[in-house]
Write a structure and sequence with these properties.
- The protein has 255 residues and is of the alpha+beta class.
- It contains five helices and eleven strands.
- The longest helix has 20 residues, at 37-56.
Length: 255
Amino acid sequence: MIERVLPRSAVGVDAFGDLPQASLHPLEALVVRHAVGARRREFATGRWCAKQALAQLRVPEAPLLPGPHHAPRWPEGVLGSITHCAGYRAAAVARSSDLLMLSVDAEPHAPLPEGVLESIALPVELAMVRELGIVSPGVHWDRLLFSLKETVYKAWYPATRRRLEFEDARITVDVSAGAFSARVLVPSPLRRYGRPLDRLSGRWLVSGGLVVAALAVPAEGTTAGAAGGARAAGGAGAAGPVSPAAPGHAPVPAT
């Protein structure tokens, strides 16, 4: 499913549950040696997905160890992202010559716990979620907003080594296209074509009880990573684009 929201320049692999063949390198096993069994299994399956994706790029297998804030450290010349939620694990990778940023996120398609939306959303986002709930009540738009925010932060930190707060970016959702864009509202240390890189974009999908999203920024001089070049549209089927909403500071999840 993850490949449906990725650009052509990225490779994605997913699994619906933990896999018995997912084993860990001894150094990876040390990372989760004190974790409960369920955490070790999801960690192993996420790494298995990542290694399968790397193999498709013909990257030699090596342990994927966590770096600062638990984000995986990828082989030289590669960037990627791992995500997991109940019943689903996925990873996406690409060559850094093709993409400047890449992140994926998966969430259960269920309402956020009470009070969470108000703590992560800007006022314009709250209004958007209410509007979307009227236009297409079959989608948990609060959970989708949370997932889109996660993709922004999971992409931003590895590229900039800076963290974002909830109020530091604003998201716009295009419902009919299953796409989104994010405008970062703090000064960007990155430049692309001589201008600050503060506008990001990606795609999202609601299917099979899951919300899945991906964000990709092409490397300068390429177009292969553009979100609009994704393999397949993946929206929820509601009609018409929707006005802006906003992301915020979600800590980069341990993977």
